[in-house]
Design brief:
- By secondary structure, the protein is an all-alpha fold.
- The chain has one domain.
- About 70% of the residues lie in helices and about 0% in strands.
- It is built from 10 helices and no strands.
- Helix 4 runs antiparallel to helix 5, helix 5 runs antiparallel to helix 6 and helix 6 runs antiparallel to helix 7.
- It is globular.
């Protein structure tokens, strides 16, 4: 049975793991300075790529996904069944609003993918495949991420994982809110394509 104490423990566990700012760490390690002063100021992998340090962007993408997966797996190992849902929520919230960076984090795409993979790997692979496929077709990072995330809840339902579908719907709403500027630029046809320089230094990354 999930008590209030267990739910709080799961949320806190997820939040602490999710709030680790890997983008900030890897950018500084690469010698590119503070990622918060680059491009959109976002700590996600897409903005890290704007520094020109491809290895740092790849490491950020991998670790941001891994922390989401770690939150789910740790909750499964240490807490009663069902707690992993709240750990997953905490992980994405931690990435979006890390206390260490005055609650200004990334946009949660990579962490969301890690969460999906750990919750139920077939759905995680489907989400990743849709993300990559859409990126290949349209060459717009934010659009491909938003398409994949929008379909995640349906995919969990397809595999009869109802509680995970409800979580995915909530997280999708949060991530779409964080992407509101990207969505406005997509509507205007101004969102930069993958590999192209943003028209403005303030262009926001999708993760």
């Amino acid at each position: 049975m999930l008590t209030g104490t267990i739910l709080l423990q799961a949320l806190l566990l997820g939040y602490l793991l999710g709030s680790v700012p890997f983008g900030l760490f890897f950018t500084r390690l690469s010698g590119a300075g503070d990622i918060r002063s680059v491009g959109s100021g976002n700590i996600g992998a897409t903005n890290v790529l704007r520094t020109g340090k491809k290895w740092a962007a790849a490491a950020t993408l991998l670790c941001d996904g891994a922390k989401g997966a770690a939150a789910v797996l740790a909750a499964r190992a240490m807490l009663p069944p069902g707690a992993e849902v709240f750990a997953a929520l905490g992980a994405v919230l931690g990435h979006l609003f890390p206390v260490w960076l005055r609650f200004k984090g990334g946009k949660g795409v990579a962490t969301f993918l890690g969460v999906c993979l750990a919750l139920y790997w077939p759905v995680g692979l489907c989400v990743a495949g849709i993300w990559l496929g859409a990126a290949f077709i349209w060459r717009i990072s934010s659009l491909s991420a938003l398409i994949a995330i929008a379909l995640s809840s349906f995919l969990f339902l397809l595999f009869h994982r109802d509680s995970y579908a409800a979580l995915a719907l909530l997280l999708s709403a949060l991530i779409y809110t964080m992407h509101r500027e990207n969505i406005r630029r997509l509507i205007r046809g101004e969102e930069p394509r993958i590999g192209a320089k943003a028209k403005s230094a303030n262009a926001e990354s999708p993760d």
